[in-house]
Structure formats: structure tokens, C-alpha cells
Amino acid sequence: MTLVCDRRLPPVSERPCGPQYAATDMNAPASEKFRDPSLVDFGADTAGYGRRLELLGNVLVDRPLLQPDLPRRRTAHWNDAAAIYEAGTGRSGTWRFTAPLPDPWRVAVPLSTATVSLEVRPAPSGQIGVFLEQAAQWEWLTRETPAGATMLSLFAHSGAATLAMAAAGANVVHVDASRQAIALARRNAEASGLAAAAIRWVCEDARTFVARELRRGTRYDGVVLDPPSWGHGPRGQAFAIDRDLLPLVADLAELTAETKAHAPRGPVLLTCHSLRWQHRRLHDTLAAVFRSERIESGPLTCSDAAGRPLELGDFARLSPH
């Protein structure tokens, strides 16, 4: 199978990779162009289930989407998907690959201060280690993070936010409960030219780590956190967003401010993908403890090749400026 996004193009192996290259004919109208990495299309399949089509490192990836009521706009492109995920009966499903994949399989995300290279790792859950809807937040972090700041990155996953702050010149403490996720983040740092950056890698439960830092009197200039709906620390510590997020944010307000009445010197970014935690609720969660008028919030979105926005989560953030 030849991985092409348009019949007018040469095979993918003959085209350069990277987000600076359009994946359709450069002479096509603007509405016909999309970029790599990018959301190409989304909509219902023939069975009525929602799907999304993404271009990652010149590989089209077809995954489920919890929005089945929208029509597809680039129907011909779906036939060229080389990585297709089918959900199972539990929390895991099956990936089907119809063509050889790049090794390593990486995407380059250009930011103001660096180009971050992220490894695509298809997981049994359907996740791939790259979250395109977060790209605007990574760019915001590169602008808002002061050089020399000490930043905390919690639930840090594959490390894109960590790398954005490190590229801005910050000292970053990267915390995640999964050793596999930390190993992936470290590979991403090396591939992004940030292997020597001031990043401390910590495998720990987020609440346990923050409580210990408070006892030690440690202070941070800002924090980024992307909590799951629920999860477990490396020693079985349970996390539930409905129960634990507000106490955690309250601890972070103390950890990042000289006094509770003052905003931190660096940015604060809270994102999540939990259905009951829309951005207004995230805004109120930050406002309850940081007491700042500089909090903004909104949906995490990315647009497909037809210009349609797709909401894939929510954010609230506090700018230090």
C-alpha cells in the first residue's frame, strides 16, 4: 500500500517529513491543505461510530472519537490509513497496521524556542503518545515561562510540556507515575536536542511528591498538570480527579507562591480530558486558590483540513504577566 494523502502526490517515502510540509498539493486552495502533524478529518464511520484521522510523521492514523454525529469531509483519505485502532470490550483494543511504519516513528512540532520531536507509541488503550490538541498550550508555555524559572510538570506523560518549558530556559521537575512514560519522555528530550537540559526526572505519585516538597519547604515558580480522571501511583496510590484535584491545586498554590495572596512568577497550566471537568470548572478550581484575575480558560481544540474545530479536552491557565 502506498501511503499518500492525495493521488497527485508522490509516495510518502519520497516526500520530506515534518510540520513545515503540506500534505496535499501546494497549488490546492487553502482549504485543501493540511500539515504534518495534523488532524486530517473526523466523523462517523458506516456503523455510526465516531473516528478521527491524523497525519503523524507522514503516516495516517485512524482512531475512535466520541463524537459520532458529524460527517466526514475527506472520505478518500481514510482508505490510506496505515495504523488503525479498533476498541475492544474492555480498556484495551487492537492496532492493525497495513504498511511498514517508520522506525523510530516521530513527529516534529515547531515551537517558538525549539522544535520538539515526539515519538509515536501506539498503546493498547488507543493512545499514541502525541496530543495534537495540546500544541497551542505548549506554544503558550514557551512564551510565558521565564528563563531560569523552576517549573513543576505533573502527570507529565511523554514530556511535551516539559520540553517546551526546558526549551524556554527553565529548570523543570518532570513527575509521572509510569516508568515507561518517563523513559519515553527522556527519549523525546534526546531527540529534541534537550538531553542536557535542566530536567529532573521523577517517577512518583503526584500528590505524594507535592506533599513531600511542601514538607521540605521547596518552592516552584510555576506548574503544569494534566491529571487523569483516575489513576494509580507507582506504589498503588489512588488518584480520582473528583476527589483529589482541588486539594492538589490548593497544595500547588502554596508550593508556587511566596504568599497565598500573590500569583506565582511562572505560568500555571491545568488541562484535562475528563467529561465533567469543562473549562469553566477548571477556571473556578484555579480561581479558588490562586485568587488572580489573570486566569483564562477554554477548550483544547485542533482543526481538521476542512477547518472544522474538534474539542478534545479543556484548559485553564494563569499567566504571570
Written overview of the protein:
The chain is α/β, with parallel strands linked by helices and 321 residues long. The protein has 2 domains: 12-97, Sandwich (Immunoglobulin-like); 106-318, Vaccinia Virus protein VP39 (Rossmann fold), CATH 3.40.50. 22% of the residues lie in helices and 27% in strands. Strands 10-9-8-11-14-16-15 form a 7-stranded mixed sheet, sandwiched between helices. It has a 5-stranded mixed sheet with strand order 1-2-3-4-5, with no helix packed on it. Strands 6-7 form a two-stranded antiparallel ribbon. α1 packs parallel to α2 (160-167), α4 (206-216) runs parallel beside α5 (241-256) and α5 (241-256) crosses α6. 43% of the residues are buried. Residues 1-33 have low confidence and may be disordered.
Give the key terms:
321 residues; alpha/beta; Immunoglobulin-like; Rossmann fold; 2 domains; 7-stranded mixed β-sheet; 5-stranded mixed β-sheet; 6 helices; disordered N terminus
Rounded mean pLDDT score: 86
What is Rg? 20 Å
Number of helices: 6
Question: At the third CATH level, what is the topology name of the largest domain?
Answer: Rossmann fold
Furnish the topology, listing elements before pairings.
Layout: E1 38-44, E2 50-56, E3 59-64, E4 83-86, E5 94-97, E6 106-110, E7 115-119, H1 135-144, E8 150-154, H2 160-167, E9 171-176, H3 179-191, E10 199-203, H4 206-216, E11 222-225, E12 230-232, E13 238-240, H5 241-256, E14 268-272, H6 279-290, E15 295-303, E16 309-318
Parallel strand pairs: 3-4, 8-9, 8-11, 9-10, 11-14
Antiparallel strand pairs: 1-2, 2-3, 4-5, 6-7, 12-13, 14-16, 15-16
Helix pairs in contact: 1-2, 4-5, 5-6
